[in-house]
Phosphatidylglycerol--prolipoprotein diacylglyceryl transferase
Amino acid sequence: MMNAASGVLASIPSPPVNEFFLGPIPIRYYALCIIAGIIVAVLLTNHRLTKRGAEPWVVIDIALVAVPLGIIGARIFHVLTHPGFYFGAGSNPWNPFEPGSVWAIWEGGIAIFGALLGGAVGAWLGCRWTGIRFWTFADALAPGILLAQAFGRFGNWFNQELYGLPTDLPWGLEIAPGNPALPVGLAPGTLFHPTFLYEVIWNTMGVCMLLAAGHRFRLQWGRLFGLYLVWYGAGRIVWESIRIDPSEIYFGLRTNVWAAIVGVIVGLAIFFVQRRRHPGIEPSPYVPGREWSPQGTVQSQDTEDFVDVSAPPVSEGTTTEVREATATSTAATK
């Protein structure tokens, strides 16, 4: 469409509403985008873990701990990095019934870096509970979490939030007049960089890259997750630098730019430290002694093959020839 102020022939419209009602209950599209992202991440992670030999749907046991702690971490990180929103003069941040309360997560305000920290704690606890290796789970999750983040960014589009600097590009984003983040003094009809779309595209490319790199180079022991942190952090540094929503500034950089820089550094450290510590492949998705036993089988701790535990044991006095015959017979029955 034509934008009168800038003379641009095309633009991206923003949705006119960000919620609908089921009776008296408001259902926000942002929440639906987050839920959709969680679902696709669980499905993709389950597929990847099962291919490694894990019990089908064990990811749900881990997600039951990781998802709530991820949401809590996301809220805490947002509140701590935006203290002026909640602890200014005249505010009552601890009253859950007051607007602007730290508890009012339904008003918006979660941060992906806090979700990663809280979710990591929850995933570690869930892996301890199920016996899955933490780094195996992290590698299986990496493409799924990036895809979930792509879904979540559509929620920012519905909310008309977290957009970038003004632009005359044909894919500029329309923002409704009266939006609280609009800079003062801009001409009506000014368009903005659609940072939500930039991140959707970047994250989708990252999913393809992670799947290809993980398959081609067999990145295990947390190295694929480290690569995820580098990819996401690098993109976030760029998108965050052109956003105009309010943020705390430290040494000339927004809080989330610093968080993204830390993410890149941590990702590189994980990649190279784990590469040095574990040059081989993971023997099993389970920690030793916690292997899953489907229909009378257990997974070997030294290979990714399965061995039949129903085969009769070989006595100490059995000859080498009998041992070899027993092994051949067992292999033939598989």
Summary: Residues 34 and 152 are 5 Å apart (CA to CA). Residues 296-334 have pLDDT under 50 and may be disordered.
